[in-house]
Design brief:
Elements (H helix, E strand, L loop, with lengths): L1 E4 L2 E4 L15 E3 L5 E3 L7 E6 L6 H14 L5 E7 L3 H11 L4 E5 L5 H4 L16 E5 L5 E6 L9 H6 L3
Parallel strand pairs: 5-6, 6-7
Antiparallel strand pairs: 1-2, 3-4, 5-8, 8-9
């Protein structure tokens, strides 16, 4: 798939999982260095907020916004996924007082390729593209969005509406 960074096309490593299919299993590293896995979250609805780095303005905004939304969603875990080291995510969430989300680092995993979100070119090559994947409690993808311009926020309303 293709997204863009400041108007310049950026190819990603694949396709997001399609609506109606089973989401790929994942194994991420949490802020406390403990595993964050799809198996551990089984039976819960998931909102996967996928982004390049919490150290950029738009990414930080999306993490804050999904933290706010997470408090209103029943049986739902919001997992904020990037290739940031777990220490960066812990620092950011601690400084911001964000407690309604789970952070997961893909710094040593296969999430990027499994979900097709690895940026293959451009200035952010090697980081994740901005995307959202919403998964039902049975693991079925309800919604997916590869944000067309990495420097813009995802469609929060559509992601939440997919859980209705």
């Amino acid at each position: 798939m293709t997204t863009a960074f400041k108007g310049t096309p950026v190819q990603t490593s694949g396709e997001l999982p399609a609506v109606g299919t089973q989401a790929p299993a994942f194994d991420l590293v949490g802020a406390d260095l403990a595993p964050v896995t799809s198996a551990d979250l089984a039976g819960r609805r998931l909102v996967l907020n996928i982004f390049p780095s919490v150290d950029t303005g738009v990414c930080a905004t999306s993490v804050r916004k999904f933290n706010e939304l997470a408090s209103t969603l029943d049986n739902t875990t919001v997992v904020c996924v990037s290739k940031d080291l777990p220490f960066a995510a812990a620092r950011f969430c601690g400084a911001e007082g964000l407690e309604n989300i789970v952070v997961g680092s893909d710094f040593r995993g296969t999430f990027a390729d499994d979900f097709g979100v690895l940026q293959l070119e451009g200035p952010l090559k090697g980081l994740l593209a901005r995307a959202v994947v919403v998964v039902d409690a049975d693991g079925t993808v309800l919604y997916e969005q590869l944000v067309p311009e990495i420097t813009t926020e995802p469609d929060y309303d559509a992601a939440v509406a997919a859980l209705s």
